[in-house]
Amino acid sequence: MTFNGLWATKTDDAISVALARLEDDQLMDGDVTVAVDYSTVNYKDGLAVTGKGAIIRKFPLIPGIDFAGTVESSRNPGFKPGDRVVLNGFELSMTHHGGYAQRARVPAEWLVKLPDSISAKDAMAIGTAGYTAMLSVLALEHGGITPDRGPVLVTGASGGVGSISVALLSKLGYRVIASTGRVQEADYLKRLGAAEIIDRASLSEPGAPIAKPKWAGAIDSCGGHTLANVLAQTDYRGTVTACGLADSMELPGSMAPFILRNVTLAGIDSVNAPQSVRSVAWTRLATDLDLGKLETTVQEIGLAEVPQVAAAILEGKVRGRTLVDVN
Ligand code: NDP
C-alpha cells in the first residue's frame, strides 16, 4: 500500500522536507497501524521542519510531533480497528516517523483513546499545544490556584499554548490577563476569554528581582526575562508553570520570589508524560474546553503548506492553532 507524507532528508548540514509517495514497508516498528486524519504545526514542528532546532535525530524521517486518526490494525489487545486515537510527543519527529502522513505505525503505549465527544479534527485543533495548556492548568490546580485566589497571567497568549490556556482558564472561572506582543489581537484574545491584555514588552526587559504582586498564578510559554519578571510579580504562594522558550532558554531571575513569596515554579513536559497524566488531560479537555471557541483559533492547511507555516511559527507570526489535513 502507498500513501502521501512529508519526507525529511539531510544532506551535509541542510534539511529538506518534501511531499513524497511512500510505501507501507517504509513505516517503522510498532504494534498499531493508524489511518491518520489530522496533524498540526506546533512550535517544535517549526524547529524540526526548518532544521533550526536539532529535533529530527534520524534521517530520512516523516516529521510531525502529533496526530489523530483511526486504528486500522493492532497486535496489541488494548486497541482494535476503528478505535479513535491521539498521539502527542514521545519519539515522533525525533527518531520515529511522525504525523505528517496518511499512515502511522507506532507502539501502543504511545497512544491515547479519544474521549467520545472529541473528534480527530478537534483533537488536532487542540494538538500538542492545547494538551500542554491543559497540563499547565492541571499544574496550577495542583498548586492550589483556584479562581478566588486572584487573576492568572498567560504569556505568549496569541500562540497555540497561550490561546488554549486563555480559553480553558476563562471557562473554569479564572480572571485571565493575556500578555501578547500583538496588541492588535486584543479582540481575538477577549473573545477567547481574556479579561485584560498587557503588552509583552512590559515583561521582556530585565526587571526587579521581586515586584508588586499582580497575579496568583501564570502559564508561561516564553522563558527568559519574561519568565523571570512573571515570577517576580506573582503573589504569595502562587504557582507559575513553565513549558516553553519562545523568548529564551535562559532563566535570568532571582531566588527572591521563591524564598520571600513561597512561589512555586512548575515545569511542564508533554513529550514523555505518563499515560495516566495524558488520560486525565484529554478527559479534562473534553469537559473544560469550549470547542466553539477553539474553532476561532484554527486555520487549516494541507501537507504541502507545512514548511511555510513551520517557518512562520518560529517568527511568532502564527495566531492560534494550525490544523494539517493530511488527506
Ligand atoms: P506558538 O509560536 O504558537 O506561540 C508562542 C507565542 O509566544 C507566540 O505566538 C508569541 O505570542 C510569543 N512569542 C514569540 N516570540 C516571543 C519572544 N521573543 N518573546 C516573548 N514572547 C514571544 O508556539 P506554541 O504555543 O506551539 O509553543 C509555545 C512554546 O511552548 C514553545 O517554546 C514550545 O516549544 C513550547 N512547548 C513546550 C511543550 C512541552 O512539552 N514543554 C509542549 C508544547 C509547546 P504573542 O504574539 O501573543 O506574544
Which CATH-level-2 architecture of the largest domain?
Alpha-Beta Complex
End-to-end separation in angstroms reads 15 Å
Tell me the name of the CATH class of the largest domain. Answer: Alpha Beta
**CATH fold label of the largest domain:** Quinone Oxidoreductase, Chain A, domain 1
Shape annotation:
globular
- Structural Rg: 20 Å
Q: Quick one: biggest sheet?
A: 7 strands, mixed
Number of extended strands: 15
Please state the average pLDDT score.
96
Strand content: 25-35%
Bound molecules: NADPH dihydro-nicotinamide-adenine-dinucleotide phosphate
How many domains? The number is: 2
Backbone structural class: alpha/beta
H/I helix tally: 10
Taking pLDDT < 50 over at least 5 consecutive residues as the criterion, the unreliable ranges are none
Domain Enoyl reductase (ER): 10-324
InterPro entries: Acrylyl-CoA_reductase_AcuI (IPR014188), ADH-like_C (IPR013149), ADH-like_N (IPR013154), ER (IPR020843), GroES-like_sf (IPR011032), NAD(P)-bd_dom_sf (IPR036291), Zn-ADH-like_protein (IPR051397)
Organism: Kaistia nematophila
Protein name: Oxidoreductase
